[in-house]
Design a protein that fits this description.
The structure is a single chain. This protein is largely without helices or strands. The chain has a domain at 26-86. Helix content is 14%, strand content 10%. It contains 1 helix and 2 strands, in the order αββ. The protein has a two-stranded antiparallel ribbon. A hairpin with a 3-residue loop joins strand 1 and strand 2 (54-58). The longest helix is centred in the middle third of the chain and has 14 residues, at 29-42. 1% of the residues are buried. Mean pLDDT is 76; it is low at 85-89 and 91-98.
């Protein structure tokens, strides 16, 4: 392993760590679950999943791109939420989820 770079505390940094390298399958279901839980813990509620493409998922009720937050979701709000906000945030403006 190399040395860690010096970080400027006046700037925003994205730090990515590899938690596991695994192909999703039924046989690896418990390992996959544990890896995602570890990544969410290390990422303080956000996780980046890499594969054919990258996707960011968050438990923080906030946009990973602009930081806008919303309150706790309740069933009465379901008609008010745009379709992209209940999918993943890797492509926030995609209405078709692709």
């Amino acid at each position: 392993m190399g040395r860690f770079p010096t970080l400027d505390k006046q700037k925003w940094h994205n730090i990515e760590i590899v938690v596991d390298r695994i192909k999703a399958s039924k046989e690896e279901k418990s390992r996959l679950f544990e890896s995602v839980q570890n990544a969410l813990k290390a990422g303080k509620g956000s996780v980046l999943i890499s594969g054919a493409d990258e996707r960011i998922f968050s438990q923080n009720n906030a946009c990973s791109y602009c930081g806008i937050t919303i309150g706790e979701l309740e069933p009465k709000h379901s008609r008010l939420i745009p379709i992209w906000s209940v999918q993943d945030v890797s492509r926030p403006w995609s209405q078709d989820g692709v």
